[in-house]
Every structure is written in structure tokens, then in C-alpha cells.
Design brief:
The complex is a heterodimer of chains A (215) and B (331).
Chain A: E1 4-9, E2 13-20, E3 23-30, H1 38-61, E4 69-73, E5 78-82, E6 87-88, H2 89-93, H3 99-117, E7 120-121, E8 130-133, E9 136-139, E10 146-147, H4 151-168, H5 173-187, H6 190-206
Helix pairs in contact in A: 3-5, 4-5, 4-6, 5-6
Chain B: E1 4-9, E2 14-21, E3 26-33, H1 43-65, E4 74-80, H2 84-101, E5 105-109, H3 110-122, E6 128-132, E7 137-143, E8 146-152, H4 158-168, H5 175-183, E9 196-197, E10 200-201, H6 204-215, H7 221-247, E11 251-255, H8 262-275, E12 278-281, H9 291-303
Helix pairs in contact in B: 1-2, 3-9, 4-5, 4-6, 5-7, 6-7, 7-8
């Protein structure tokens, strides 16, 4: 291990770039939060570190691009993982859609479909957590993820992605989501996809408030 | 001459009449709150309360402001979201006044009003807002003409969750403030579910688990209150912190009835320090539902010509915050 450079200070973790046995890596350190009680804080950080590491490697086995995990430190709640050189989809997508970006959206849908097909729920599928590089979409930040085959969990995952598009990519939310759904439906069976899409609508209508266009 | 607006609030248990000028001076802010003898808010009974107290609340607001009905320039009312019967009763009062005095009518989104009164009185310009009350739990921020909702509850709101637990624990409605007092005496952290889904939150399972800890596992009430607050607020604060990191806004505004909770304020204060944002809490007098916030937002909307005809002033119990187009800038 040599020099570490803080490259991002997220809400939950600090990301450092550095070298680890000659490899280009990210040190993801889940930081202690003063607002939480110490025991609740440690429990959450450890649970998420363990779950994220497991989900990242299982996702890779299922054919979804994720960084390679090199080391996990449960005491310091740190993960050492492969550094992915690329662009965050959040900035890449912005608020304009073109053919290239539609392809990226379809790839996101395919990757999410592949996760769900293999019983992995991402838990926080926002465009900040997708990295695009050389024609591939990498999924990162599985800290809120779970293993689940349930219709509800998969639908909530898609619902969250839709919501993220609406709050951040509001001008292209509808179109980009339909591209994502198209990619998704190619991976999971069309029957299952329909079931999930219908349930996404139900979850939305279950919400406290809705747009007139939803009803 | 500044404009004078009467704002009528009546989305849930409170009926309020506020009078505010276009310079932001609150001339009156009268309120009457329906208190159920047992259980929670019954929508029809709350609406009956509103119709019973409306003229009295209205008169005392006018008296306090020292003006007569004819001197009003705008009449604003809470058009939604909220409980249907309460919204309709309040709308009837607003329409009657608008017709009687021939004063323009403005329909105000209740959630928007909570944000705008907070901005007015704390001086925040473009904040991340955490709006927490008995009826709402929303993390929002302004982007491109709308307040975008980054996180919200996918089942019950935080205030409702605390009240529901309070009711099951034999505390009188509203339970939230009583849970807060009891929580101060709690020491043991009882394990409860921590449910954050992306930026969204879920409180219903948490309440069920807390009730079970109290009734079946016989944990001390103080400890369960303490744990319930710690879990629920940690969830809220986590999502808020993520919204700050995501949007890079420089201010944090806490508003709504639950904003008065000292523990929640303390936790958000820590996050604000970490994220280097300025933290503001809405003043106590306008934290809960009130007419002044409706009046102030009514003035803002009126200035941009957002007047509605009485015939088209139907209420909308499920009106989303981001459905409202905001004509003013965040300067």
C-alpha cells in the first residue's frame, strides 16, 4: 500500500484511490457517523461492508460488470476493490438523450435484469452507482443490496431507479426508463418482466401522493 | 402598498387562518386543533371540527391583524394533499370568502407551503428540505422549476409512525411529543428493523416491531421509545445526508411538525457539520400546520398570476409536491 488520495466523500463512505500490490485500487471506507448511536453505527457499517462484498462478487459471477474485490477489513469496515476508469452515468446521461445514451440505458436494464434473475437486489440503483467504460456498464455500491427472489423486492429496485431518473434526469426520465425496461425484458423472461412492470405501477400508486398522469 | 393575503389551512387535524403581507410580515396566525378523545384523527370528525371553528378562527385572525375582510387582496387555501373531508370543508370556506368579497382565490400545495414558510423565516435560499410531519416525510430540493422529491416514505410518514406507536402504548394523541419525552429516559437500544430502500424509507414494519417489543417481549416503554426514535431518525438522517451529497446543495432546512423534535435536530446538526452545509430549523410557531404558510405561499403564487376560478378549485388529496411548477427563482 502506498499513497492514498481521497477522491470522493460520499454520504456513507470515503473513497480513496491508491495502489495495492501494484494494482490500481479504490479503498472504500465506511465512516462512522456521529449522529448514530455507536453500536447501531458499527452494526450498520459491518452489515453493509459484508453484504456489499458478497453481492459484488456474486454479481460478477452472474455476468454483471462489477469491480473485483481484493480485501475486506471488517474491523475498519473497508473494502479494497478494483479501480474502474470510466464515467459516472449520472453525468453522462445528464438531461439529454441520443442514440448512444439509449444504448447505455438498455445496458443498464440488461445488467439489472441479470442481477434480478440471479436473485440479487441492488438496493440503491441510481445513476451515481453506474460507471460506463468501454461499452460496459459497471454496477457499484451494493451496500443496501440483498439476496432475494421476491417479486416485490425486484419491483422496488426498478421503482427506485425510475424515481432516481425523475429527480435527477427529469427531462428524459420517461424515455430513458423505457429503454431500461426494454433491456431488462430481454434478460428476464417476458412473462416475469410484465409481472414486475405491473407491480412497479402498483408500488407507485401505493405511494401517498401521485401525479395526475399516473392515475 | 403591500398585498395582504389570508391563508386557510385545513388538510388534517388543524384549521388555521393566517394573514401575511407581500413583505413577509405575519400579521396573524390563528389555529384550532382537533383533539380526538380516543384513537387517531378521524377524517369526518376533523372536518366537522373545522366547520365548527372556522368563523371563530377567521374572526380572531382578522381582529389580530386589525383588518376587515374587504381589505384582503388574496385568499389562499390548502388545496391538497390531505384528508378529503378536511380539504373540502376548508375549500368551502375559502370559496365563500372569495365570492363574498370578490377577492382572487389561490390554491396552495400544503407541502410547498411548509418549504416556503421555512425559506421565508430562516432566510435559506436553495436548501435540501427535510419535511417531516404526521402526514408527510419528504426530502426535496429545487431543480428546473420544481421541487424534486429525492426521498420519501413508501408507506406511513414518520409523525404517523410515532403517533401510532404512542397510541398502542396508551399515550394520548399526538404521541410523537410524548415519545420524545419518554425517549430521554431510555438507555437500552432494543433491536429493531432499519429499513432504507435507496433514498426511500419505510416505517410501518418498524412500528409493528416496536409494538411487539413493548407488548410481547415486555421491554421498558422508555427503552422502546428511545430505540424507535434512534432507528427512525437514523434512517431519516441517512437519506437526508445522501441527498445533500447527491445534489451538492449548501443549506439544509428542517420543516414540519416533527421538526420540533430535539433529538432529530441534534442528529441533523451533526450531519450538517460533516457535510459542511448550513442547517436551519423552521421556527416553532410555523413548524406544524398553520395558515400563515398557506398565506405566504399564496402571495408568491398570486404574484405570478396563479389564480384559480372557484368552479375549478377542486381539492386534490394526493397532490404531489413536484406536480407544482414553481415560477419563482431560488435567489
Amino acid at each position: 500500500m502506498v499513497s492514498l488520495n481521497l477522491i470522493a466523500k460520499g454520504a456513507e463512505a470515503n473513497l480513496y484511490r491508491g495502489e495495492w500490490f501494484g494494482r490500481n485500487v479504490i479503498f472504500k471506507e465506511r465512516i462512522s457517523k456521529k449522529y448514530r448511536l455507536p453500536n447501531l453505527d458499527l452494526q450498520l457499517r459491518q452489515q453493509r461492508t459484508a453484504m456489499e462484498s458478497k453481492l459484488l462478487s456474486v454479481a460478477k459471477k452472474c455476468g454483471v460488470s462489477t469491480p473485483i474485490i481484493y480485501e475486506i477489513d471488517m474491523k475498519k469496515t473497508t473494502i479494497v476493490m478494483e479501480y474502474i476508469e470510466g464515467d459516472r452515468v449520472k453525468e453522462l446521461l445528464a438531461n439529454e438523450l441520443n442514440e448512444d445514451k439509449k444504448v447505455i440505458c438498455r445496458k443498464i436494464g440488461e445488467a439489472l435484469g441479470r442481477l434480478h434473475k440471479n436473485g440479487i437486489i441492488h438496493g440503491d440503483p441510481t445513476t451515481s452507482n453506474f460507471i460506463y467504460t468501454h461499452g460496459k456498464v459497471f454496477f457499484v455500491d451494493f451496500g443496501l443490496g440483498v439476496f432475494s427472489d421476491s417479486l416485490e423486492d425486484a419491483s422496488v429496485d426498478l421503482h427506485l431507479l425510475k424515481r432516481a431518473l425523475e429527480s435527477t434526469h427529469f427531462k428524459i426520465a420517461k424515455e430513458s426508463f423505457s429503454e431500461i425496461c426494454a433491456g431488462y425484458a430481454q434478460i428476464v423472461s417476458s412473462e416475469r418482466a410484465k409481472e414486475i412492470f405491473d407491480n412497479v405501477e402498483k408500488i407507485r400508486l401505493r405511494g401517498r401522493y401521485m401525479l395526475r398522469s399516473d392515475i | 402598498m403591500p398585498l395582504i393575503c389570508l391563508g386557510l389551512e385545513g388538510t388534517a387535524h388543524s384549521f388555521g387562518a393566517g394573514i401575511v403581507t407581500s413583505e413577509g410580515d405575519i400579521l396573524a396566525n390563528e389555529i384550532s386543533t382537533y383533539l380526538p378523545i380516543t384513537g387517531g384523527i378521524h377524517p369526518r370528525e376533523a372536518a366537522q371540527h373545522h366547520s365548527a371553528v372556522a368563523s371563530q378562527v377567521l374572526q380572531s385572525a382578522l381582529l389580530k391583524a386589525g383588518i376587515s375582510g374587504e381589505e384582503l387582496d388574496v385568499i389562499a387555501f390548502s388545496q391538497g394533499p390531505g384528508l378529503g373531508p378536511c380539504l373540502r370543508t376548508t375549500a368551502v370556506v375559502a370559496r365563500a370568502l372569495s365570492t363574498l368579497f370578490d377577492i382572487p382565490l389561490v390554491g396552495v400545495n400544503h407541502c410547498l407551503a411548509h418549504v416556503e414558510i421555512g425559506r421565508l423565516l430562516t432566510g435559506t435560499k436553495d436548501p435540501i428540505t427535510l419535511y417531516v410531519s404526521g402526514g408527510n416525510t419528504i426530502v426535496s430540493a429545487f431543480a428546473d422549476k420544481r421541487y424534486r422529491v429525492f426521498g420519501e416514505t413508501i408507506d406511513i410518514p414518520i409523525g404517523n409512525a410515532l403517533d401510532m406507536f404512542g397510541r398502542e402504548a396508551g399515550l394520548q394523541h399526538p404521541g410523537g411529543p410524548k415519545v420524545e419525552v419518554l425517549a430521554r429516559k431510555g438507555k437500552k437500544l432494543v433491536e429493531l428493523p432499519y429499513i432504507v430502500k435507496g433514498m426511500d424509507l419505510s416505517f410501518s414494519g418498524l412500528v409493528t416491531a416496536a409494538i411487539r417489543k413493548l407488548k410481547e417481549e415486555k421491554e421498558q416503554l422508555e427503552d422502546v421509545c428511545f430505540s424507535l426514535q434512534e432507528y427512525a431518525f437514523s434512517m431519516l438522517v441517512e437519506v437526508t445526508e445522501r441527498a445533500i451529497a447527491h445534489t451538492q446543495k449548501k443549506e439544509l432546512l428542517l420543516t414540519g411538525g416533527v421538526a420540533q423534535n430535539k433529538r432529530l435536530q441534534e442528529m441533523l446538526g451533526e450531519v450538517a457539520k460533516d457535510q459542511e452545509v448550513a442547517f436551519f430549523t423552521v421556527p416553532k410557531e410555523v413548524a406544524g400546520d398553520n395558515g400563515a404558510m398557506i398565506a405566504w405561499t399564496g402571495i408568491l403564487l398570486y404574484k405570478y398570476g396563479k389564480i384559480i376560478d372557484v368552479e375549478k378549485s377542486l381539492v386534490d388529496p394526493k397532490w404531489r409536491l413536484e406536480a407544482v411548477e414553481i415560477p419563482w427563482s431560488m435567489e
